Amino acid sequence: MLDYSKSFIETQFPVSKVSKESYKERKAVQGQTLTGLGKWWGRKPLILVRATILGLLLPISENPNKDRDIFLKLLTMDNEGLLMRKSKNIPTKQVFQLLTNNEKEKYFSTNSTVDKPTYRKEIKKTEKDHLQQLVFNRLSYDDKLKYSDRPEHIKNLPESAWQEINDHLETTASNLQELTRQLGEKRYGHVPRIGDCFAGGGSIPFEAGRMGADIYASDLNPVASLLTWASLNIAGANHEEIAKLQEFQHKVYEETNNIILSWGIEENEQGWRGNAYLYCNETTCPECRYKIPLLPTLIIGRGPTNTIARLEKDSINKNYKIKIIENVSNEELKQAEKNVTINDYSLKCPNCMNSTPIPSIRKDKDDGILRDYRYNTPNELRKWDNTDFKNQDTDIFTERLYCIRYEEVITDSNGNEKIIRHFVEPNEKDIENEHKVEALLRERFNQWREKGYLPNSLIEKGWNTNQLTYEKGWTNWSNLYNPRQLLLTGLLFEVADRFAENRKEKVIALLGINKCANWNSKLSRWDKGKSPSVKDIFYNQSFNTLFNYGCRGLTLYKSIWFFNINSYPINSKSIIKPLNASEVEYESDIWITDPPYADAVHYHELAELFLAWDKNMIRNIFPEWYSDSKRVLAVKGTGESFNKSMIYIYKNLSKKMPDNGTQVVMFTHQDTKVWAELAMILWSSGLRVVSAWNIATETESGGLKDGGNYVKGTVLLILKKQTSEDIAFQDELYRKIKKEVQFQIDSMRNLDDKEDPNFTDADYLLAAYASSLKVLTAYKDIEGIDVQYELSKSRNSDEENPIEALINKAVKIAYDYLIPEGVDSLVWRDLLPEERFFIRGLELEMGNIYQVSAYQELARGFGVKDYKDMFENFKANSVRLKTATEYRTRGVDNDVFGSSLMRHVLVSLYQCVQAESTVEGINYLKAKYDQDNEYWDKRSAIMEILGFISRFENISHMKHWQNDAYYARLLQGAVRNDGI
């Protein structure tokens, strides 16, 4: 019997598998389906959206395990689906390792070794294929993903799978689109309507459309609306349309290339063509008055060419020449890493050897007014005019071209063309080309700006945008580009506008221009690695000004102007428009939103760079759209105004969905205070929480967060309309929350796959949060809690509000209830929070959990703030705690954990390993706890801790613990027998 009053996602959600699939998709970087359309910040993985929508549409039955099996089958996350997705062969060496001895004898030669296995000569391809399948099925889920495509690459499930799905769901579907429509008919009486009023880069509308739902999508920012339109109409176009669009791209590029060649601005005397140009700022040293090139690195490229820049002093002109030298030794390369002229944001003068902070060179003025130092402090930089496209000679910072990468085309004896790249310092011909570029741009500058081919708008003040004026003096978006960049991108734009014949061609041209704007500016980094190239502006969520940068020649535009369009034809009905989220008038059965929560990212400011290029063309393509950022209307900030905006938006969405409709709010989990605030916002909006799930994906990315870890734990809050009229009393809530927390944890444990666990401590912690919110929001009102008053208070307040207090109690309930397997409940009760955190962290490691976010959630749950010293590695996806021998005696008795029983047990283990004997371990513990018979009082706890650690001895992925675990087993026995 199917129950459509509840959906699958309300009762269960395989978070582990969805997290792993989401991580795999993120790691594809430019290979992601929508990434090629253009930059947007925080796009949600498509597999996460697909899983969420399926979870919302699927009914529940009396067999939750079967419900889960069907859900996984639909997402190709079951064994059969993973085998369909297998696209790479498992190496022979790994195949050999995963076979039984009998199987090895059957398929491999007798002289095979682990390092060099060889198949028997008579083995056929069909048998090798059979082995691939056999071994693949023995791999863990994580390992299977290494050899598999993403779920979206599977066009359809086999007929046998649809038979099983239809039998369970009482449907007649033969593909995902048909199933989506049939489930919508059963649940809502029509094809499901899915809406997103914070559409951003378009992940949610695109995936909803690809699944067959009708779509409403809006975003305040027209650039986001453009990307969403493109996701549905270009990434969602058919193959014939895609072929025509690619033909259009080639036609525009070839015409632009012919014009550039006729101008002769990229060729030198030998006929080589420049494809990359390196520029740097220069400034005058205030101590010795030499003009110094500001180079944070003298390395041009590693690897095949080993190219560096070398500074040569010109005493007559009091400046420096820059020599470019290829094929230097590795020693010279290392030296070039050290000989920099700017470091720690200070000029390092190679002449007088003095160091001068950049703020001093800019002449920052500390006038006593409280400001954000980095962005708002006044200085003496000249403020650029909107007609400026280069520095003036009198500016504090000037600019020079110091290196060009040329490409020489040669033909070998077989008639094949080969490209050889040369890094050279600019000569007179190159400088002449620079002047020609400036002259060509000057001729076209005003006309191109009028037509919208070049930016012609001021940089508005803001959190991110102030940096551009403060650090460089730029006041107009065109100031972010040098003459060559403006000329090439403007020419592409002009030609594209001339050739475009329909809306899709105009849109794909505009997307290409936006990519050029991002990948070829004075904020574009020069990657000096083994394959040197010009990178994009937005490697993080800000405008990072540079002292040296890379500029693309037209041939290097190929990688940004042409992009792979992953075609997935979409035939759903859709409405897309730029609109304030509070003004939505369309009704949806399901609202899925990823709101801009509390200034995490200043989308409205960052996207203004693209809008500066897009304004005229957007008005041309979509006359009914506006073309400014509507920055003043953006949901931003914190505190009362932010909360009121959010309540207004979600109250409106609640009105715009049926009584059996559902909302999903995605946000990045931060702390209890934020959870409490969000709970009150949603509660005030007439919504109640029915479940919550945490999808953890993370990648390493420099410069985004402390330690280089960009942690992304996306919480899915599942919400229904609030229909209760009941009023609760605070004193009865704790009992109900405790019961709900324990029920939720028990339910998750019963559903979990013991062989391939879905849930970690982070998920159980989230279950506690959700359980408390579920109980709280089930009531219309709670006696003694004034929600509006609590929302009016500053989030920075140290005062714990009543909702926050209840959530914290729920967390404590969860962690008192979650006793590690094999640990006595009385011992667990007496352990310090830091000890519990360490033990729970080791349990995560036992379960192959290495995400930073999982350990951060643990720390929050136990209220442990100082934990970094406990870790041997704290990098994304490779986190692990120190072993006893790695810890040694560092930090003993220095802090709470250092003084704990757990820490002293680890020291005793270290003593055992060092001495290869348990005597030293027991002696250490007795010496430490010899007063008042403490040793004997703590003996049972010591044995519990040692017994827990001894379990690591035979865990294959915890070999670093093997020796310590061996001695833990011996020491546990010695302590048990001590005194007998």
Automatic annotation (TrEMBL):
Keywords: Methyltransferase, Transferase. One of its GO terms (molecular function) is methyltransferase activity. Residues 12-73 form the DUF1156 domain. Pfam families: DUF1156 (PF06634). InterPro entries: Antiphage_assoc, DUF1156, SAM-dependent_MTases_sf. GO terms for biological process: methylation. This is DNA methylase. It comes from Oceanobacillus indicireducens.
